[in-house]
Amino acid sequence: MFDREDFEGRIFSYYPPLQRVKEYVEQNLSEPISLREAASAAGLEEKYFSAFFHRKTGICFRDWLAGRRVDRAIEILTQRDDTITNVAASVGFQDLGTFERSFKRLTGLTPREFKRSVAPEAVAQAASAIPAELPAAETVELLPERSPQPEEALAAAADEALPLYAGARPLASRGAVLRNLGNLAGSLLMPTLAVARAPTLVSP
């Protein structure tokens, strides 16, 4: 993850003219700082300083200075309750409109929106909306499936219902049909066997 402050610190500490400018700006952030004053603090000519600063940092001096002022304004708004006008003046902005435009360009929020978002009550409400601990998901213990015994499997196969059709009366199960056929066959066969076993009368 890119750390802008760390990168800026490395650049400014590497080049002594930039380090001198940074120190001068931090000491006079609440005051107007011109390009000439910054060049003088760096020990360079004004025209050369502007090109040097942009070449080494990738940003012009005025934009960098506005970013430093906005950073300081963010610290103030986070630490204490103060009016937007007082905050703008304390970080060196000469008019409120310039401060609001610079703040919005760099943060995506207006100073008032940012102030409302970091107020203690807003932070407390945001914290209370986050559950301290997420509820644990309920676990259901599944019992191992019991394999059917051979006799149970046979009974289930015999009693499997035949498909039903709309408007038709339910049919008997296969097991019941087989039992009925067996009873019917037995009732027809028994008289036949009885006749076969009867003695044959022989005439004299």
Write structural notes for this entry:
Among the domains are: 1-59, no CATH class; 63-126, Homeodomain-like (Arc Repressor Mutant, subunit A, Orthogonal Bundle). Residues 157-174 and 187-204 have low confidence and may be disordered. The radius of gyration is 48 Å and the shape is elongated. It has 204 residues and is mostly helical. The protein is built from 11 helices and no strands. It has helices at residues 4-14, 16-27, 35-42, 46-57, 61-79, 84-90, 96-107, 111-118, 120-128, 150-158, 174-197.
The average pLDDT is: 76
- Strand elements, count: 0
Q: DSSP strand (E) fraction? A: under 5%
Largest sheet: none
Per CATH, the class of the domain at 63-126 reads: Mainly Alpha
Instruction: Count the DSSP helices.
Output: 11
Helix content: 55-70%
CATH homologous superfamily name of the domain at 63-126? Answer: Homeodomain-like
Which topology of the domain at 63-126 does CATH recognise? Arc Repressor Mutant, subunit A
Helices and strands, in order, run as HHHHHHHHHHH
* Span of the ends, CA to CA: 126 Å
